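Page 42, continued from yesterday. The earlier attempt failed because a stray header line got pasted into the input along with the sequence. Redoing it now with the clean sequence only.
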Amino acid sequence: MPGKAARHLSRRERQIMDIIYARGEAAAAEVHAALPDAPGYSAVRTLLRILEEKGHLRHREDGPRYIFLPTEPHARASRSALKRVVQTFFDGSLASAVAALVDASGGRLPAAELKRLEAIIAAARKKTR
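This time it went through. Structure tokens are written below.
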């Protein structure tokens, strides 16, 4: 498995991963068509190869085309990315990250989200006892 530095994604690589996660799998031409302000087709193919080298994608052959698939489930990749964001921008403080998200929403959370957050906190309290 590649190290943390090798797994860092550029903005364009993140866009490509978002497209592939949204579709489940995609050929280079599909990725190229879906990218905003897409670079040339060969640049997209190069980025797909780089993402494979970094361990984010794998491919299967479909005739002459390569079909690219993520190497890990979206939920796991999301958790990993979120942990990096919390570490990088909030000095590892989950409370600070959550506070920033609540502040960004203007402090107006739907009742269902508040209830879910309360349940998550209650469950975490049980685990720490």
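Notes: Residues 111-128 form the longest helix (18 residues).
Reminder to self: strip header lines before submitting.
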